[in-house]
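hey so u asked for the seq, here:
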Amino acid sequence: IRDEFLAARYGLGDGAVLGFVGSMSVWHGIDNLLRIIGTIVRKYPNCRFLLVGSGGGQDGQVNRYLQERGLSDHVILTGYVPHEKIPAFVQLMDVVLAPYPNLPFFYYSPVKVFEYMAAGKAVVTTRIGQLARIIRDGWDGVLCPPGDFDALISAISGLLEDSGIAATMGENARATIAQKHTWIHKAQAYEKICQQVCKAFHGTAWA
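ran it, structure tokens below
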């Protein structure tokens, strides 16, 4: 449920809200996010970017980038938000973004994408790591090739121009999590692994 008091606090009206939650770190794709903001707000002047989080070493860079390019009025930087308050901010978002870069020796399995999906949000992210196995492209999220900014912009544009598709994708995302990726599912998977190990080593003498 949208928190109208919180929306009013940040000046969010009827325009679409593109959201991001996380620290301002290289591995979260902050550089990728900054590269698309200008293009998106020129195409959709009424949309706003809601970036929730701080730290990670790029806070100052983000502020300078937005100010130098005259984008500050289109981007809300909340700073640090306590974890228990994050769900209310996510509910303000129409489309959530996780534009991860392709870093060497870095495997992506971010909990926040599971949380975005569980909240019923359409996720635009990168076809990388475990994300490529969790999300069915075009069904419960959108997967873009790493570093393909045209694809990223196209995916976001498609969801902004058809809120019905975004809503359906969000519903599908919530269903995916409920059917396959709750903590109960994870516990059952770990239980199965433990049972297999116990069976494999049954009767083995341990030193």
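The beta strands are 17-21, 48-52, 75-77, 95-98, 122-126, 142-144. The mean pLDDT is 90.
lmk if thats what u needed
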